[in-house]
Write a structure and sequence with these properties.
It is a single chain. The protein is mainly alpha-helical and about 110 residues long. The chain has two domains: about 40 residues, no CATH class; about 45 residues. The protein has four helices and no strands. It is elongated.
Length: about 110
């Protein structure tokens, strides 16, 4: 393999200075994207290419929160019979909250 076959992009280099605020926005955009480097992110911004970003599914997050509560309450099941009745009520409430949330978010 020759020395000239290294993978360097063709074209000219570009070095810019940005304000702290702009740099923070760039870092935040990079963190929310699938780009691995700031160079890749900025190149896509400058050329107008699409940038794939991550987003949170709020309905799924709500479901997970309720499932965590339910799991913690179920773990208490083995700690004694006096907790069974409130536990059953809590399970019913969690299931109803999950059902209501899913029904409200149907498309």
């Amino acid at each position: 393999m020759s020395r000239n076959s290294s993978k360097k992009p063709e074209g000219k280099g570009l070095h810019i200075h940005v304000s702290k605020e702009d740099f923070q926005r760039l870092q935040q955009g990079l963190a929310n994207s699938t780009c691995w480097t700031m160079t890749e992110y900025c190149r896509k911004l400058l050329t107008g290419k699409p940038i794939t970003v991550f987003y949170r599914n709020q309905s799924f997050d709500a479901f997970i929160e309720e499932a965590i509560i339910l799991r913690k309450r179920l773990q208490l099941l083995g700690q004694g019979d006096e907790l069974l009745i409130p536990l059953i009520d809590d399970i019913k409430n969690c299931i109803n909250k999950i059902y209501d949330h899913v029904c409200q978010n149907k498309i």
